[in-house]
Every structure is written in structure tokens, then in C-alpha cells.
Amino acid sequence: MGIIDKLKGTPKWKHQDLAVRLEGLKETDDPAVFAEALETDTEARVRRVAVGRVDDVAVLAQAAQNDADEDVRDKAAERLVSLATDAGRDEALAASAAAGVSDQKKLSTIVKTSPHASARAAALARVTDTRALGSIARHAKDETSARAAFDRIADRDELTNVALKSDHKDLALAAFDRVIDASAPDRALLETLESRSQQKAVSKRARTLMQHMDEAEATRIKAAEEQARREQQITDAIEQVAQIADVARAETELARLTDVWTTLGAASDAGAARFADVVSRANSAIDAKRRDAADKALQAARAAEEEVELARSRAEAVATREALLTRVETLVADTPEHLKAQLNAIEEEWRSLAPLVGNGPEASRLAERFAVAVAACRTRHEMGAELDTTRAKLDALVTEAETLPAMEETPAADRWRTLVREARGLATVLKNAGRPADDLKTRLDAVAAVFAGRDALVKEAATKTLDEQLVKLQRMSDRAKRVAEAEQITLREGERLMKDVRTALDEASAIDRKDFREAAATLTGWLEKVAPRVRDLREMDDWRRFANQQAQDRLILEAETLVAKLALEEQHGQPSDLAAASRKLRDLHGKWKLAAEAPRDQAQKLWERFRTATDLIRLRCEVYFKQVREARTASLSTRTALVEEAESLVNSTDWVKTATRFQELQKAWQDAGPMLRGGDGPDPARDLMKRFRAASNAFFSRRREDLTTRKKVWGDNQSKKEALCARAEELAQSTDWDAASAEMKKLQAEWKTVGPLRRAKSEALWTRFRAAADNFFERYHHRHEIALAGKIAEREEWLATLEGIAATDGDAPEGLAEKIQTLRTTWNRAVPIPTAEFRALVDRWQKTLASVIAKWPDAFKGTDVDPAAAITRMEKLVTRLETLLEQLNEGAPEPKKALSPTELLAQKLRSALAQNAMGGRSTDDSKWRSAADTLKDAQASWQRLPPVPGDQAAALQTKFAGIARKIGDLVRKNQPSHSGGGGKPSGGHQGGGGGHKGGGHDKRPQRTPAGASA
For the whole model, what pTM was predicted? Predict the structure, then answer.
């Protein structure tokens, strides 16, 4: 360090005293000074002042991360945010500032508001908090940054907030797609998005999804109902399977119904349970029938075995008897005597046979057959020619029978029944006569088989018909049950049911089957429950029809009265109010529809009377109707022109003018009168109305959307201007003048960049903002007076505290020394005030402090305010100055003769030239400079002494002031003028602050009472 640097002294912003350092920072504009103060100063108050003026990003980042004071860290981070979001800053500087911020909220603010892309990217890269990312995605001005933040969000709640509150339509839709599962959307979340989202597209998509969900739910319910109905039908049919006697047929039907059930797909739990139950019961019934059939088969097999055993025992006897029967049936003899002899022999052999065991009927049959054969043999020989005739008749009948299958069924069946009885009789005669016609019998059996097959088919068809009638009867029971159990039924439904039930019961009464009787009994039971309700409904209907008859009579009377009135007016040539008559006609028809149902025996007659009267009214009003049609037809062209003009204005953007014109068109539409309505064909009136309404709606929808957009812009601008107003109002009361002034100017510039808003709001906000700005700059122009007033108020407060202590009576308050020492330290460290008012405060302070010390001197023993210790320090300072004065007097030159000013100036110039020629300062100069420094130190020490009451302190004060004045005079006389005053003793008025200048104008040391500096 050079000597020049040493002579410069320590700058105020590096002074040891805190207040001096703060004042020094306010007096400089060097950013490097603020940066060094922020890095090196140990006092948080200094760093808080410096941080707002630092532009070095590295220093700010270091302070934001590591400073011990939280307020300094926050202000450093805010300064970095300000640099990163300032449009006037360099792009690289803004990016560096963003990289130095670590607080998530502040990083979010940079991403949302910074105009620099690199700063936004640097800040976004450091954002890790999900909520901060969500805030960026919702409110970032740059959509690219918002998209980047959005892509990093995985939290469902934040995605939902983006969909609800995002300023960007595309991001809101993307958030909607991510938060809503299209395959299984959350209905409650959709309702929230539909009602609360700021983006119409999101609300519309949510509403569309909910509509699809409702439609899908309705379809599902309908399909479920159809599924339940089909399940019910199948399970009801399976329940009937148990009633089928044929096991094979029951199994086939059950398998078929099971296949049908399988084709239904997934069934409900209740339906599946019921299906399993009825299938189980049906299988149980089929198994029971199968077991019964097996038992019967087993018994039959056992009986067959026994029968075989019996047959074996009588086989020979039967065979012997059959042989004898064959011999008798085929016996041929030439003469009756020969025949008689052979028959006698055969009869004798028959009688000799052993009787048949265990088969009495069979034995009787064979015996009877043998007797018949013997008789037939005798008869055959006696009636030979007659039997030939009988065979010929049988042959003719068989031949005729063989032609019957080709004939129509009914005549053939009738003939077959007659023919077969006759043929069977002839065959019996031939058989009994011993001449059986087996060939003819075989042919006749073949024809019988054909007719038997036909009968079987008829019986099967009849059985199937009966089964269908049974199912129909059971379904009728189910229908009657549903009606009986329903809470409400209509008369029409009840009467139709009773009619159908009676028809079904009449049909079932002709069938004598147990299942039919049971089904009919069940149906009768339900009918008995429905019948009373139907009777009640019928009675109510009869009463209603009776009441309607009265109403119809009144309507007919009104119509006939109107007819008579119109006729009378026509006869007398009086004008008729046909418009009122047409309205009355329309009213009569409307009321007739409400009472259309009358008693059945009177309904047609009443209707004929009413129709006749109304037709006469309509005929009389035809002239009026024609006029109305002409008027409506005329208005059609007018409305068409209105519609065409409305459609031409749909895309206009001159909102005010076009809206006014649309209102005029709507008024003209109303004034155009009624239009002719179409009949069954196209209705031009309805089409024009639809086109006119569509054009109006389209324009006003566009207008509302534009107004909504403008309202949003206005709202955003209003929010921005309100924020500027709020900030300006905060700054209006600030005392950080430089920073607040710069920010206020920045707010004024930013105000000009904000777009328009509603006129009423704009004027009010501008007045508010201008008032805040004017208030601040008014205070800024008087900032010195305000600061001075604040300092004086602060001193007044300390002085009031001290005076309160001085006013206390009695013993010394507890902790008095500590309180006084704290107040004294605070007073001394405060910045001095160069005003006359401050001198009065100093005097009050010194007097009050002196009174406190004099009142309780023992309380201050051993402290810095101890009077005895202060006296000792005074004496040492006086002694020190006396010694210095003696040293100066010893080396002082002899008094010179009085010189004129010109001679004195010449002498000083010669001395200066001599010193310059020697290249350094003389020893004498150093002596006087050292004397000046010693005097300043002594004066500063004296000022730091507490006020000491008493004569001794006053005498020391007077002595110290006299010696100091003498030394000052010597120094001024002997110190060279080229020193620039650097060695002059400080004689300004010291205002009680520990070593701070009070700003006095007298360069000589001022006489102050002892201990003027507390």
C-alpha cells in the first residue's frame, strides 16, 4: 500500500461504527462497493442495505445460499429474480441470475414471468417441487415453458389443477387427457372439471364424456333388463322340464335350454344362481325318473327269468298241444266217418296229456282253441262252399283297404273304421272254421299300420298343442302375478288381462290333465286378486265418463249457442266477431280433448252433436280464416327478407352496430304478424324461424365469446394494474429512497405496457396508481426532512424513556445500570443530526442523564457511567493535554515580529519551495501533525465520558477546554497550509454520538459541558 493510499484514510462504508457504514453506503453508487459490503460486512443491517444494489450475480448467489441472515438471503434471492425477469438485462446475465436461485417459488416466478428464454430454461431445470411445476404449467406466460413444466408433472392432483386453472387451452386439454382414464372415467372428477375449469374446451370435453357415460349406462341398463328377461324365460322353461314324463325328451330339452343359456354370455350373479338351482332341480327330477325306469326294468328282467323257467316247464306240453291243434286244423278226410274216427283219436290223445302247470288261463285257452278247432273242423267239412264265399268277401275288403291310404284322410279314415270291423269279422269266421286267411290278414295289418302311423302323428301333434297351451297358461299366470303385485295398473291393462285370462281358462277347462288343472287353479288365484282392482278402476272410469258427459253437454251447449248467435247476426246483417269465434272454436276443441271419453252408450251421439255445431262455426268463420291465411302468406316474404339479412350479418365483427341491427330485425320479426303454418308437408314458418334463430344465436354467441375473451384480457390487465397499484402503495411509504425510486419508475414504465381494461375500472385504477406515485415522489423530494424527523422522533423516544427513569422516586430501579448503559450505547451509535433542535435534545439528554447519575450514584459503581471513574478519566485527559502543551511550548520559536499578510504569504511559499526541493516533509511538520491527532483523540475520549455532576467535574471541563484551545491555536499557527487541513483538530459540535460529527460550522473546538458525549 502506498503512502497516498495510507493518507486517504478508511472509507465510511468500512468504518467500524455501524451507523457510519450505513450512511456511507447511502452516499455511494459504486456496485463494487455494495458487492464487497455484501460479501465482507459482519452486520446484517449493512448487508440488507447492500444486497438491493448489487448486480454481481455470483455475489448475489453466494449470499442467497450462505448468508447467515435469513432476510439477506431472501433479499438476495429476490434481487436475482429481479435480474432474471428484467427485460432490459442481458440474456446471459438473466440466465446466470436464474441459475443462482434455489427457492422453488422464486424459480417458479422466473419461469412464469421472465422474458429471457435462457433464464426460463435455467430456472425450470432447477425446479423440482411438484406444486411449483404445476403453478408454472398453469400460469407461465411462455407456453413452451409451461409445456416443459407440464411434461414433468406426475402428480394427479397437480394435473387436475392444471386442467382446472391453466391459462393455456392446449395444456388444459393435455392435463385432462392425462388425469381422465377414457376407459373408466371418474364421474365426480368430470363433474368438477365441467363446472370449474377456466377453459371451455375442457368443460366441453368433460360434458361430452359424461354424456357418453350416461348413454353407456342407459344402454347397459337396457341390456341388463333384456338379459334378465331372457334369463327369466330360460329358467321358467327349465322349471317346466321337470314335468316332462319322457326322460329322453326331458334331457334333450334341458340340454337345448342350457345351450341357449350359454349363448346369452355373462349372466348376473342372481341369474346364474337361479339357473344353477333350476338346472339342479331338473337334473334331480330326471335322475329320479331314470331310477324309476331302471327299477322297473330290473323287475321286468326278474319276471322274465321266472317266465323263462315256467315256459321251459310247459314248453313240451304246449308244443304237444300245438301239434295236436295243427293236426286238427289241417285234418282232411274223404268221408265224414273217416273224419270222425280221426277226430276221436286226436281227442283221446288230448285228454291223455298232462295238465299245464302254473298257467291256468293258457291251458284254458289251448283247451278252448282245441275245442274250437275240432268244431271248426267238423263245420269246415260241413260248410265248405260257404267258407269259400267268405274268403272271397275278405279278399275284396282287403283289396279295397289297400286303396284307402291314397284317398283324402277324413273319408279314408271313416271308411277304414267300417271296413276293418267287417274284415276282422270275416277273418274270425274263417279262423273259427279252420280255414284262416293269414295272407289276407297280413295285407290288412299293413294297411292298419299305415293308419296307425297317421293316428300316432295326430296324437303327437295334439300333445304338442297341449304342451304349448300349458306354457301359454303358465305365462298368463306370470303376467297376472306381475299385474297383481304392481303398485298401479290401468283399466285397459286390467280388462285386457281379465279377458285373456278367461279365454285361457275356458280353453284349459276342456282338457282333463292334472298339470292343466294345477295351472288353471294358479291362474284363477291371481285372477281373484286382480278382479277387485279392475272393478274399482272400472267404477272410477264410469264416474269419470259420467263427469265428462256433463262437460261435453256444456261444450255442446256453448257451441250451439255460438252457432245460433252467428246465425242471428247473419240474418240481421250485423257484423260478427269472427276472430273471437275462431278462438272460441279452438278453445272448444281443446276442452273437448280433455273430456273426450264419455259413457259408451252416449259417446257417439254426443260427438255427432258437437261435430255438427263446430262444423257450422268453422263454415261461418271460413272468411276470417281466408283473411288470416292471406296475412300470414304476406308476412312470409317479409320474414324471408329478414332472415336473409340476418344470415348476411352473422360473421360481422362490428359488434355494437350489428347487435343494434339484430335487435331491430327481431323487433321487425315480432311486428311482421303471424305466418301460415304448414300442414302435413314442409312448414316454411318453422324453417324460417329456425334459420332466423340460428343466425341470431350464431352472431350473439360469437359476440359473447369475443366479450368473454375481452373480459378475460380486461381481467388479466386489471389484475396486473391492481398488483402495480398495491406495489406502488407499498413503495409510497418506503424510506429506501433509491431502490424505491428506481422500482417506482419501473412500475410506471410497466403500467404503460399493460393493455386496456373497462373504462370505469381504468380511471379508478389510474387515479389510485397516480396518487400512490405522487405520494411517493412528494415524500422523495422531502426525504431529508422525513429522515431527519424520523431520527428526531427516535431520539425523542429514547429521551422519553430516560426521563421516565429520572422521574422515578425512591430507591434505584432494578437493573438501572444495565438500562442506562443500553440507552447510552443506543444514543451514541445513532447518526447525529445537524440541527438546532438536536442541540436542544442533547442538552436535555445530558441534563437528564446527569440527574439520574446524581440521584442514584451508587447504582453505577463499577460501570462505564461511574462518576468517580469518569472524574479519574477526566483528570488523565487534562494531564495528557497539559503535557502536550508543555512539549509544544518548549520547542516553539521565539515570537516573531508582526508581518503583513503579503510578507506572511511569501514566507510560507518559501518554506513550501524549500520542502519540495528537499523531497520530503520536515520533522517540525510531523510534530505539529502528531499534536493535532493527539488533540483529536483526547477530544473524542472526552466526548465519550458520561455527564458528571459537581464542581470538580465543571472545573476539569473548563480546564480541558482552555488547554485544548491553546493547543489548537498553536497547531493552526505552525502547521503548513499545504497539508489540506488533514491535520486540523476536529472542533465541530459533537452531538452526543460516540465520535460522530455533529455538523457544526465553527472550526474551533467547541466548549461543551463535561461528558457531552454520553
Answer: 0.32
Place of cell 283221446: 348
Scanning 383-437, the segments in alpha helix (DSSP H) are 384-403, 409-432
Q: How far apart are CA 179 and CA 150, in angstroms?
A: 12
Cα dihedral: 948, 953, 959, 964 (round 10): -10
Output the nine-digit C-alpha cell for 36.
464487497
Supply 334's cell numbers.
Answer: 274223404
Hey, what's the cell of 164?
A: 382446472
d(CA 872, CA 861): 13
- Secondary structure of 844-892 in the HEC alphabet? HHHHHHHHHHHHCHHHHCCCCCCHHHHHHHHHHHHHHHHHHHHHHHHCC
The DSSP code for 922 is -
The dihedral over CA atoms of 400, 402, 408, 413, expressed in degrees to the nearest 10, equals: 80
- Cα(331)–Cα(338) distance, integer angstroms: 11
* Residue whose C-alpha cell reads 425450470 in the numeric block: 124
Return the pLDDT at 677. Answer: 57
Average pLDDT over residues 556-577: 86
How many CA atoms within 13 Å lie on the side-chain side of 641? 6
The one-letter amino acid code at 622 reads: E
pLDDT reported for residue 980: 40
Q: Cα torsion for 487, 490, 495, 496, to the nearest 10°?
A: -100
Cα gap 249→231, rounded to integer Å: 22
Under 8 Å CB-to-CB from 420, ≥6 apart: which residues? 401, 444, 448
Q: Check if the beta carbon of residue 540 is closer than 8 Å to that of residue 488.
A: no
Residue 891: the pLDDT is 57
pLDDT, tens digit (0-9, with 9 covering 90-100), for 586-632: 898 898 888 878 787 888 888 988 889 888 888 888 888 888 877 77
Closest to 49 (Cα-Cα) out of 730, 734, 824: 734
Mean pLDDT of 758-787: 84
CA distance 84 to 103: 14
Q: Minimal CA–CA distance to 570: which of 608, 616, 620?
A: 620
Distances (CA, A) of 714 to 308, 711, 728: 115, 5, 20
Cβ count within 10 A of residue 696: 20
3-state secondary structure 156-190: HHHHHHHHHHCCCHHHHHHHHHHHCCCCCCCHHHH
H runs (alpha helix) in 783-835: 783-806, 816-829
Residue 168, pLDDT > 50, answer yes
Give the pLDDT band of residue 991 (cuts 50, 70, 90). Answer: very low
Name the grid cell of 993.
454520538
Q: How far apart are the first and last CA of the chain?
A: 36
**DSSP H or E segment with residue 597:** none
> Could you give the CA distance from residue 634 to residue 129 in angstroms, rounded to a whole number?
72
452-497 pLDDT, tens digit per residue, is 887 888 888 878 888 888 888 888 888 888 888 888 888 788 878 8
pLDDT mean across residues, the chain? 79
pLDDT tens digits along 219-249: 888 888 887 888 888 888 888 877 787 878 8
pLDDT tops 60 at residue 680: no
664/685 Cα distance (integer angstroms):
20
Pair 414, 447: CB distance under 8 Å: no
Say how many C-beta atoms besides its own lie within 10 A of residue 460's C-beta: 10
Residue type, 487: E
